[in-house]
Design goal:
Layout: E1 2-5, H1 11-19, E2 23-26, E3 30-31, E4 45-48, H2 51-58, E5 71-74, H3 76-84, E6 89-93, H4 96-104, E7 115-120, H5 126-134, E8 138-144, E9 147-148, E10 159-162, H6 165-172, E11 181-184, H7 187-194, E12 200-202, H8 208-219
Parallel strand pairs: 1-2, 1-10, 4-5, 4-7, 5-6, 7-8, 10-11, 11-12
Antiparallel strand pairs: 3-9
């Protein structure tokens, strides 16, 4: 069975699939180059929704001045990266919808002072719509671009691994969905795929390793 990963995997992750007898094709279908941005300190809260946003902020000359500011984030890998650099993560969750629910449960905590929301150029509206509805003082800072970098496959594959809605869009810019079995890192990515593929499976854990585990469970005896 031939599997396409729309994100390049680590050597260990590649070996994991190959050990199960799969043929792996991989390519980064999106690139996330950092963008120049300015910080207007201080902030009362910081919000990150991806590792890409964290990496871009870490390249800013003033990033260490943010270390004393509490952080809310989406994604366990985002949380781990932030904590490894000394940030204080007060709450982390797998999905932006859960972060909205968390903030709404104690709204007064976020109504005083400015919030910095670090995003890419293809960010979703889940959090911005909430901020606008509750009239929170949020400064949205675009810190990285999302660029489609697709290739055209020479031969069809049996399964496709997607890790973001942008990855789905990039793949579809050069291919037509067919009978492939699709695996998605989370429900948001799956929503982007379900209108194109009949069979979409969401990883039991929203990480790359979670996707691979779901593949192993569903495709091996």
């Amino acid at each position: 069975m031939k599997i396409l990963s729309t994100k390049c995997l680590t050597s260990a992750q590649q070996q994991r699939l190959q050990a199960l007898g799969f043929t792996l094709v991989q390519h980064n279908f999106i690139a996330t180059p950092p963008l120049p941005f300015a910080l207007s300190l201080p902030y009362e809260w910081l919000i990150f929704t991806s590792q890409n946003g964290v990496q871009s902020v870490l390249a800013h000359p003033q990033w260490q001045e943010l270390l004393s500011t509490p952080v809310l984030c989406v994604g366990v890998k985002t949380q781990q990266l932030l904590q490894s650099k000394g940030f204080k993560v007060c709450y982390a969750t797998d999905y932006a919808t859960d972060l909205v629910a968390y903030m709404r449960s104690d709204l007064s905590r976020y109504q005083e002072g400015r919030i910095a929301f670090f995003v890419g150029t293809h960010r979703l509206n889940t959090l911005p719509d909430f901020f606008a509805a509750e009239k929170l003082q949020v400064t949205e800072i675009t810190v990285y671009d999302t660029v489609f970098t697709p290739i055209t496959l020479a031969a069809p594959v049996d399964a496709i691994l997607f890790f973001s809605p942008s990855g789905v869009q990039s793949y579809l810019s050069t291919h037509t969905a067919a009978a492939e079995q699709v695996y998605c890192i989370g429900t948001t990515t799956a929503q982007a795929a379900t209108s194109h593929w009949a069979s979409v499976i969401v990883a039991t854990e929203p990480t790359v390793d979670g996707v691979l585990q779901t593949v192993a469970t569903s495709l091996t005896p």
